[in-house]
């Protein structure tokens, strides 16, 4: 779509192009922007001001403002050090308040009035930002309080939302040569146009996977011995190790949250304390469809 491709065209020509298409304008979401972020934000802001001054319909001026706010938020994530800095606690208070300011700016421009029943909600999402009391921060805290950062790292966290259920995955790496996954499944209940309830059903610790090429030469002999020992274990034990450790939760833990922003690329939710989580889309769900006439649970 020609409209607002990283704010590289003038406001007048961008809007002229938008009238020639029936599809809404769309920006390409990038987690690795160019360095001249300040200049690009100034250009986007100037475009919005110019559009309003020239009497361009407000719907397009608002859309341009929304796309600018999205890019500004992603740039703030990168300026703060991204996911790695977030989970290791290396983000400063100034960076935190800057990100939160941009989150509230984008929430004000939410294009989806009923996000809990929107087809945009389903799909695979990657965590970019979470607060101190969210499930993401709790997982990071458990890991880093028990192991030094030189021993373990949390490389990424994502969640798949489909058919009123979720599957959240934390990808953990030990000594940069052993990969492991911690998985949490839950059930979602629609409580209103913005509010949902999440009930946790099961936690699972998958069997670790050794990255053989990352194993030092002096340890490869021990790795071979360990592999041989595992192969000699009884079948029930091997099956347990292969299938991972499962912890049934039975819905004993739950939380409520509100979706404050949703489009085809960004999801923002807030918990009961108002702490935000920001996720970016990795892929859509093939079965996503519009949901109508939903009865909310009270």
Automatic annotation (TrEMBL):
Belongs to the PAP/fibrillin family. It is found in: Plastid, Chloroplast. It comes from the Eukaryota. Signal peptide: none annotated. It holds the Pfam family PAP_fibrillin. GO terms for cellular component: chloroplast. Keywords: Plastid, Transit peptide. The lineage of its organism: Eukaryota, Viridiplantae, Streptophyta, Embryophyta, Tracheophyta. Residues 95-274 form the Plastid lipid-associated protein/fibrillin conserved domain. InterPro entries: PAP (IPR039633), PAP/fibrillin_dom (IPR006843). This is Plastid lipid-associated protein/fibrillin conserved domain-containing protein.
